[in-house]
Amino acid sequence: MSLSFALPGGRLFEDTKRLFGEIGLNIPEPESRELITKDGPYSFVYAKAFDVPVYVEHGVDMGIVGGDVVEERECDLFIPLELPFGRCRISVIGREGREINPSDMEGYKVATKYPKIASAFFDSIGVNVDILKLYGSVELGPKVGMSDVIVDIVDSGNTIKANGLKELYVISDINAVLIVNRISQKTKFEEINEFINRIRKIKNEEAISKGLYNDFFKSIH
Amino acid sequence: MKKDIFSESKKLYRLAKIIRNNFESWNYEEIFMPFMEEYTNSFRGGLKYTDSNNFFLIKPDATSQIISRIKKADEYRCFYFNEYFPIQGECSLQFGAEFIGKNPLQQKLEILSVVFTILKSVGIEDFYIDIGSLENLNGILKEVPEFKTKILKALEKRNFSIVEDMNIDKEIKKRLWEIFSFRGKKSGIKQLDQIVEKLPEENIFIDTGTIRYLEYYEDIVFEIYSPLTGKPLGGGGDYKVGGMTGFGFFMDLKDLSKICDICVQEFRELVTGDIKETYERSRELTMNGKKVEVVL
């Protein structure tokens, strides 16, 4: 039976390619502007990270994307696996030298690519803020005085440092996740479970070899 | 711009008509839910509304409204079309049915049969029904009550990693793994197996990971889905009410309308001519059960 995957570009794609390679699944390199590639029964759809959950919700069987994007898009999906890459955090970031706790940010303007995550966070601590939705380069917000702080992904911290910004509060830790279409999980039950188990086995073996994990998984397979 | 309510309603009306006919064929009677209920914990969902010191719920879940109104032990077969406000999210237009009585197996087989005939009669052949057992899961949850929320979250997302990371007995993890990973026709769980044995349709499966954890469901739950859409079309389950048992289901009418193609052809008598005579003739025809279209 065929299986389709929606994949984002950039570093997540490279990590995904490596992981799939470890379970013997080859992702053919897309040529120039090619949007779909195939390898036997597997097809790969190349999409923007923010669109990956939408493709999966509406018919692609599985996808790999950051947990932040899944949370922001609020799609109705299964998330059977967290993956051992794409680790970063979503944080409140402000100007260097103007450190302030989020609970004291009443009335602040918050620029972000993640309005739902940002709103949910400030609502949870009972602080009213104005959310400004941007599509990229959110670091510009505080620099041009348009916003007081930003809510964004922090990986190494180099980008925010280069822009005179500082991570003030970590909202949540994030990593890449495998997402599955709810209906495919039923109609392709065995194929999808077998695929998940192959990845889980690799993931757990890595963890066990690093002494990070118990061997429960081995006992059930 | 506002939606074209006439075009949308035309499709919903035709769909609702077919569904109503199905319910009537199965001897179910339509019931009409109150718009607003006084706030109590017995209702699920509903938009909270307050007037002075009185608290109300607007359009809560229909099944909880029905359960709260059963006054005497009798057999009830009813169906409804109802708007529903969940605690979070948008209002939806649902239809569903409840069969309340004293024969749980009959209730389950009949309600599932009604679902089959409705979907087939609106032209949806490609659909599946997965049934699961809450009792099976509850047995485990009772042993590790402090992990209940996490286990339910793991099942909701089918994320077994969450269970793997829990500090619980290895044997319990194994039993949970069996719940996560079984889908087939024979599970060893008597209540599930007997339903599938007595419904020979190919598109009904036991999926022990199918969990609809609503306040009133007791044991058997099910989900209806189709590859034509990315989310379940609806679902249902069993419950206890006043010494009896009930089994029911709901589906979202608008979601269903998006995936079915209904073409209704019906004969109408064209009545035309002088305005007075036309309506006189039309009244006569409609009183004799004929359908008319007046064109002046």
Give a summary of the structure in a few sentences.
By secondary structure, chain A is of the alpha/beta class.
Basic shape of chain B: elongated
| Strands ordered across the widest β-sheet of chain A | 2-3-1-4-11-5
What are the secondary-structure elements of chain B, in order, as H or E?
Answer: HEEEEHEEHEHHHHEHEEEEHEHE
| Main pleated-sheet profile of chain B | 9 strands, mixed
Helix content of chain A: 25-40%
Structural class of chain B: alpha+beta
Sheet bearing the most strands of chain A, described?
Answer: 6 strands, mixed
How is the largest sheet of chain B built, in terms of strand order?
Answer: 1-5-6-12-11-10-7-9-8
The span between the termini of chain B is 33 Å
Number of domains of chain A: 2
CATH fold group of the largest domain in chain A: D-Maltodextrin-Binding Protein, domain 2
The proportion of residues in beta strands of chain A is: 25-35%
The dominant shape of chain A is elongated
Which structural class fits the helix and strand makeup of chain A?
alpha/beta
Helix content of chain B: 25-40%
